[in-house]
Amino acid sequence: MGDRWRHLTASAERQVAYVRAQLAGLARPDSHQRLQVRQIAKATLAAVLAWLVASRLSLSQAAWIAPATAVIMVHATVYQTLTNGLRRVAAVATGVILAGAVGYVMGLGVLSLVLIVPPALLAARWRRMGRHGSDVATTAVLMLSFGAASEEGYLLGYVVATAIGAMSGISVNLLLWPPLYRDRPVLAVRRLGRETAALLGAMAEGLRDGWDLSELPEWERQAVRLDEHLAAATTAVADRTESRRYNLRLRLHPRSGAADPSPVLRLLTSAAAHVHAIVHALSYLDHPAAPGTGPGQPADVSDDYARDYADLLDLLAEALASKVRRGDPAHTHELIGRAQAHAARIHERMTSEIRHGEIEHPGGWALSGSLLTDADRILAILSDHQDTLPGYGRAKT
After folding, report:
1. How far is the C-alpha of 202 from the C-alpha of 321, rounded, in Å?
2. Element (H, E) at 14
3. Phi, psi of 255 (to 5 degrees)
4. Within its chain, how far is the Cα of 141 from the centroid?
5. Residue 237 and residue 149 share a domain
6. pLDDT, tens digit, for every residue of 24-65?
7. Is 376 in the same domain as 254?
8. How many CA atoms lie less than 13 Å away from 192 in the CB half-sphere?
9. How many alpha carbons fall within 13 Å on the CB side of residue 353?
């Protein structure tokens, strides 16, 4: 009962913290929360405008489709609104044409469905239809099922109402504060960089003192969260690029916006794969110690190597954090140089041990090499991107 109560309390605290964060976001100018509120208001306005226009044109029973289409046309970017608006109108028109052509002659029946569904699904699979490809089949079957396929006036009104809804959504999203993502991608990439550096630092702390792998499950959870942050950052950067297409705000202020975070994202994407590999390699060390080894010490790798490797991970974490937050270039360069020198010393020691037959733990040699190789690759990634990252000043939202 006590554990359950603590779990419920912790869950309630997380929900309260989430609500507070959302309210705090509403107080910040041009925050993500305010953007969502604006998008909701714009969708409402688009629906009202679409209904008024459809009603004025006396589209009778088909008028309902206009506001329904307008709501789903207010997308996260102007580009999505334009492309999806055209695709939806094309999909609906194709479905109506199929239903009208077959239903006018045959009405609703098994044979008419056999004649409509296959070509509708083939049209839906055309890649240019995008996410609205399924609207071809659903529109055709609905028109046929409702008995409207033989009513030319309703079919025409349905297509016109869809077009009105799409135009309303496009116009509102294009002309009224079109979404322009500037701060969110930078923040997402920075969070990804912090999490990556934090995981490297946590592993260094555990490896430095007696091969303490008790936190390995937490490192594995952090690695999973790293994938989630990477996906979020990738989506945010893609939205930033797409939001600049056909955006009138950008045309009015062509120099506005924060620096492009894409180079940093590419660096972190490459580094994340090797961080995962390090966590995976360490999972092989998490087994009972062999006779003669210290408590918690894996039998395959020496303590000296663990301490050296921990120091290397610490340097990598510092260099990565400095790179992402765009710290002093000289300091970042110094950290990378120190890490390179330290990695070279580890290589030299391992080579010397092989040459003189002084390997204490031959069973763990391949594992030691794997750990060092992934650390070297992270270091190479940091070195290769040394002069390509944008300056991160105070980002505008």
Report:
1. 14
2. helix 2-26
3. -100, 5
4. 35
5. no
6. 766 676 667 777 888 899 999 999 999 999 988 877 678 888
7. yes
8. 30
9. 17
- Same domain (yes/no): 157, 213: no
Query: Which pair of structure tokens corresponds to residue 320?
Result: 């990565």
Q: How far is CA 66 from the centre of its chain?
A: 32
| CATH number for the domain that contains residue 317 | 1.20.58.220
Which positions ≥6 away from 101 have C-beta within 8 Å?
none
Structural domains counted in the chain: 2
- Taking 50 as the pLDDT cut, the residues of the chain under it are 288-299, 387-397
Half-sphere exposure of 323 (CA within 13 A, CB side): 34
CA 187-189-190 angle, to 5 degrees, is: 65
Query: What are the respective helix, strand and coil percentages of the chain, to the nearest 5?
Result: 75, 0, 25
**Domain match, 165 and 191 both:** no
pTM given for the model = 0.70
Kind and range of the H or E element at 100?
Answer: helix 78-106
Specify whether 135 is located in the same domain as 220: no
The amino acid at 46: A
d(CA 258, CA 260): 7
Only one residue has tokens 């492009």, namely: 260
| HSE (side-chain half, CA atoms, 13 Å) at 141 | 13
Instruction: Report the 10 Å Cβ neighbour count for 341.
Output: 10
